[in-house]
Amino acid sequence: MPYLKKCPPVPEPIDCRILTAALDLFVENGFHNVSIHEVQKRAQVSIGSIYNHFGGKEGVAQALYKHILNEMDELVETVMAEFPTPWQQCEAIIRQLFEHTETHRNIIAFVFHAKHTEFISQDPLMCHSAAFSKMRSIVRNGIEAGEFVDMDSWVLTSSIFGGAIRMIQLRLDGVIEKPLPEYGEMLLQTIRTGVFQERSDA
Amino acid sequence: MPYLKKCPPVPEPIDCRILTAALDLFVENGFHNVSIHEVQKRAQVSIGSIYNHFGGKEGVAQALYKHILNEMDELVETVMAEFPTPWQQCEAIIRQLFEHTETHRNIIAFVFHAKHTEFISQDPLMCHSAAFSKMRSIVRNGIEAGEFVDMDSWVLTSSIFGGAIRMIQLRLDGVIEKPLPEYGEMLLQTIRTGVFQERSDA
DNA sequence: GTCTATATATGGATAGAC
DNA sequence: GTCTATCCATATATAGAC
């Protein structure tokens, strides 16, 4: 009789339990449709603890927000260190985001789906976050290096990442039914060379 | 003394007043941060009337949702009637959306910014709406006609419209500071021919 | 059909024991 | 630090007069 097996491994720290419970609930039902009582119940923690650790519901959301923005930033940072050229970096970021959409669904959903200003007062607007700033600066590097076409960097950043972000949203909504990585190369192709069929008589 | 001027022209019908007030408030503060009392106050209508006409706050949101999806559908419909080729239709839709973002800001914001499932139960998911379906079918037409590259239509639709949608969101968030139509041609260029600089030595 | 006043529930927040 | 029980504001929804 494997007695020791019944010992739960290492119990997760309490604030971590709260955050993961909150993330799941917020993504599933939306911030405003989730009560502290529900978070408390799912996290197996008392209300008092939630107030102790985060000061309330919005405090939980803020902590979550910061934490997840950090993760995103690290993702971009890693890619930048690993690949030399701006375009390779863009490619890698899109591939990573597609992977993450499948493996860390709720994190991605929290980043791309929610309108954070609705529940985080004094919201340092997602697109001003370190991760998104870095994505734009990659694009600027590419322009300066003569790799990308020379135009407004907001437009170009939107052109490069907009399609991917759109696909992520469609995937999260369940509209796209197959895992995103299957579509990665296709998407990258259109970003590189546009959407037109090569004219065979050209 | 121009006495007649003081007569308000034709008073707007009551349900219209409610909808426009609600639209503005929902976009500004988010559905859950707006109380019926605020809508009532801004629309200069009593709470009873709101319940009579729409059955409650969610009813107002649903009516708004339907109405606005209709407008979007008409926009796409008109473009399809006016332009012959799929690509011209795509171009025109993007230009129209950019225009609308400036002239009907809150309508566009309601369409692209909100996560409707959070406040509309049984939400016929935006991307399944007539307008979005038609956009995708335009893309399919382009593929069949050999105009667009032959690939999954979700990917291609995202490639074509994703950048525009992204720019609309950035504009609504105040990140992009100039009116979108200024960027229209730039964006269309990258969709057509990709993001790379033409190599002068090619 | 429109209004005002009110009932009722929900849920964020706190107090105080352990 | 953690818990339970309770408070109290808010906001949806309704009742009933006009």
UniProtKB/TrEMBL annotation, chains A, B:
Residues 12-72 form the HTH tetR-type domain. Gene3D superfamilies: Tetracycline Repressor, domain 2. Keywords: DNA-binding. Residues 35-54 bind DNA. This is Transcriptional regulator, TetR family. InterPro entries: DNA-bd_HTH_TetR-type_CS, Homeodomain-like_sf, HTH-type_Tx_Regulator, HTH_TetR, Tet_transcr_reg_TetR-rel_C_sf. It comes from Thiothrix nivea (strain ATCC 35100 / DSM 5205 / JP2). GO terms for molecular function: DNA binding. The keyword DNA-binding applies. It holds the Pfam family TetR_N.
